[in-house]
Amino acid sequence: MLYYKDYPKQVDFNDLDIRLLDQYLTTFKMPKEASKKQEELIFEFLCIAEFNSVHSVHSSPPYFEFVEGELVGWSF
Fold first, then answer.
1. Average pLDDT by stretches of 10, the chain with 76 residues
2. 71 exposed, middle or buried (CB, 10 Å; 0-12, 13-18, 19+)?
3. Are 44 and 11 in contact (CB under 8 A)?
4. What angle do CA 6, 13, 20 make, to 5 degrees?
5. Count of alpha carbons within 13 Å of 46, Cβ hemisphere only?
6. What is the CA radius of gyration of the chain?
7. What pTM was computed for the model?
8. How many angstroms separate the CA atoms of 3 and 56, rounded?
9. Tally of CB atoms within 10 A around 52
């Protein structure tokens, strides 16, 4: 497992709006109400999710697992 300190950008997903991420994933369009920071967080979330699935490595920036779990319906 890689922790966010191992990830070069040290992204923290505490401020990621899960509703905007869900809307982006279901419509494939960036929501109009998404700020530049939200757009960046959505992009970084998708990059890390892709990295984890392709390389069988689990990078775990703060709050990433919670956001990932909310999207797939896991209970925390």
1. 60 87 93 96 87 68 74 66
2. middle
3. yes
4. 140
5. 13
6. 12
7. 0.67
8. 14
9. 17
